[in-house]
Amino acid sequence: MRRPPKEEPQEELTTSAPEDWATGVPAVAHALEYSLEQTTVPRVATTLLTMNQVDGIDCPGCAWADPSPGHRHRNEYCENGAKHINDEATSRRITADFFRSHPVSDLAQRSDLWLNQQGRLTEPMVKRAGSDHYEPISWHEAFGLMASELTSLDSPDEAVFYTSGRASNEAAFVLQLLARVFGTNNLPDCSNMCHESSGFALHETLGTGKGTVSLHDIHHADLIFLVGQNPGTNHPRQLSALEQAKLNGARVIAVNTLPEAGLLRFKNPQKPRGVVGRGVEIADQFLHIRSGGDLALFQGLNRMLLEEEDARPGTVLDHDFIRSHTSGFEEFSRHARTIAWEDVLTATGLTRQEIETTRDEVLRSKRVVVCWAMGITQQKHGVPTIREIVNFLLLRGNLGRAGTGASPVRGHSNVQGDRTMGVWEQMPDSFLDALRQEFGFEPPRAHGLDSVRAIRAMREGGIKFFLSLAGNFVTAAPDSTVTEEAMRRCRLTAHISTKLNRSHAICGETALILPTLGRTERDIQTSGEQFVTVENSMSEVHTSYGRLKPASKLLLSEVAILCRLARRALDGKADIPWNRFEEDYGAIRHRISHIIPGFHDFNRRVARPGGIRLPNPVNEGVFATATGKAHFTRNAWQMSRAPEGHLVLQTLRSHDQWNTIPYTRNDRYRGIQGSRRVVLVNPQDIAELDLADGQAVDLVSVWSDDVERRAGGFVVVPYPTTRGCAAAYYPETQVLVPLDSVADISNQPTSKGIVVRLEPVEAKTGSAHAAEDGAVR
Amino acid sequence: MSAIEETLEVGVPVSTAYNQWTQFKSFPRFMSAVTKVEQVRPAVTRWSIGYGPVRGEFAAEIWEQRPDSCLAWRSLGGRPAHGGEVSFDSAPSDRTVVTVRMTITTPGLAGLLTDVSGVVHRVVRRELGNFKEFIEGLGQEVGAWRGSIHNGHVQPVEPEPPRSHVPCWPVG
Questions:
Q1: Is B2-22+62-138 assigned to CATH 2.10.109.10?
Q2: Which of A357, A391, A408 is the last residue of a domain?
Q3: CATH of the domain at A682
Q4: What is the pLDDT of residues B148-166, one digit of tens each?
Q5: CB contact (8 A) between residue A402 and residue B151
Q6: CA distance linking residue A51 with residue B87, whole number of Å
Q7: Nearest CA in chain B to A198
Q8: In degrees rounded to 5, what are phi and psi of residue A371?
Q9: What is the ipTM metric for this complex?
Q10: Ranges for the Molybdopterin oxidoreductase domain (chain A) (predicted)?
Q11: Mutate to test the interface with B, among A605, A622, A746 (most CBs of B within 10 A)
């Protein structure tokens, strides 16, 4: 184990050619190197060998599904999962001394990288109004402060309860119950910022907000689209599933603005061919698309399929399926034939021939799966794009059949489960009625605030109390300057956290840090050792058992913190056994089994190896829409064009990063070392914009409100991005995303498709580092 | 590719024989070569089999199914590839003729060197006998799934079968 850094690491930017393959032996080496910097060999062995095993720790990383019990490797994790779990299992500790030498104003100047590297939080801390220091506080007093703030509010809607996708089902259920008994539906979550567009589009067209595929479908598909996603970094275990599919004869088409290493070739380090051989080619066709052109691509493809059916009637479309299971085909079909080819080619930046090649791949394939992630959902027209993908799948009956389906690939381990548990600001009456019947209180019916609306309300002074169940809201949210000002207007902010992050430094008048157990740690309550449950991207609900000794004796579990807060703040409101819930999480699951459809007999069924697979109605032949059928939709779009001298920017993660937290400033696959303040630009654009390789620039975004949003201290790096499209790291560029720039229908912030100009600045010695440490944002 | 056909008359009505055949998870109770069947969803099952020293697993898709009439399956991935149809025809005196037609494709050199059809044929014959013994002994099915499947798409018999009662609100 290495000691935490005292100061921000000083590094120089170096670049090399991007990799054309992912994983392999270097991934194993990097995972172990980072893990052993954080903690000891026995703890690393415990985390890695129990990770994603049937009775082990569910990786707190991405939500990709595990193979069936009996089919898992001894090492069932990826490089980033290993880094992530040992980032939590770290032996580094933050004590009261740390806060004495680092006032809040100092912490606010630090990068999330540095804050995270300081280690685990060990005792509750408070920053009192007017103070610049966090100081220790007893749990009892901390709950008293929160309870007194909550009870003094003029309306329950002055409180916001935010959830991150790390939270377990049990904690999420208790949080939403607490909020609703208190009297508000203000339950924003990180889903609002990642796959909200998927939920809305799938719910409307298929009657379910969840993806329809399981690993079986991926393994047995003939053709898999990977659209706007980077599996090599963000869901590396997906590469194993893709490898299996390829070995079974599948073809893969990757659609992206960057030729990401993980889309090109995969060397599976668990297999000899991945260690010494070339590995497996992933993409058979790479569509180097313009940012935001995906809707046009699928419309173009759909038009081609319709025309192919005209030429060879009865051979292209699945008429039986369309007739018996869908509605709206005729209107869709008429609309699809009006798509102008020149618009499709302009929007996608592809050639007609490329799209025809894709069409031919589709025509040769009986089973098609489409996977997508934030390259789609964070576009302004994310919802229509996913609806068009559904149209594409419906045309040839590629839904509800083995080896087919829609796969929104989710990025945080329980982001789907938290929604299933009712963490949503717009829960339907059926759920609220069930809560009323079970617990005997009247839940609020008015919709609450999502993430964007919560920030607006905070900015306007309408929110006094902000509680965050895990997460790093300030950094994850768009329009960083606005979000930070908004957060500072709250009277009390409280964060249930394992580690320090920027949201503890950019806080309300009074602020609490409530340190909690990580998923890796044993959770012992008065009824005995507890486990929690989570739901992956493929609707499998299973257990996670902590294995390590907790980072401190004073840590409380997330469930315990919420139950104790509820007892103090909601005294007398509703007859809910908060004590019992804290003692035995089985009591929470028992109540969940009464309320949430599909969770009957939850305690018994989830204890079985592999847990519960929630059926997807689409695979049962059920479309739970108003008409009982899947809907074809007509989707219009506007050509998004950056004005002359501008580029369309997308945010992305580096390979050494988990959500808002970078582990280092390196991005191995893209050949970037030593700095994250880089903007990746096509060499021809660099020339056209009269810029140069290595030039220092500020990124300035353009938006209709004419407010200048600037991210300073960036360096131009030539990269094979699509012409006119640039990329830079999240969250450093969140400052450029206007709060009001949201996806239609889903209200999801558009961290893709941001129009920016690159303003050359005089390169100053050390300026990049000043920016890295958070002073320039 | 080799083809197998095996027929057996069982002493129960068509609906009883058919209903029992839809209860795949119960197959290990009476079939000697089947050790476990997982019903992933109505049209997808995963089979663990053991015959002597041979152990294997495969996933199968049911692509056609008509109540009291027939079902057709094909394996997903795996070697050797197989597929076929089980049909149920009523015979006099409330009896049923169950017919299994199956094709097996062993690709490559293994296919040239071995002929697995003889072994498979013997297994199918024996398992049909096991089925007959089981269903005649019970006299009634242990359960039933009455939906149908066409071209791999499920058509449930009721608008919302119980299994599809799961959270349907948007998931971000």
A1: no
A2: A408
A3: 2.40.40.20
A4: 999 999 999 988 888 888 9
A5: no
A6: 46
A7: B172
A8: -105, 140
A9: 0.91
A10: 120-493
A11: A622
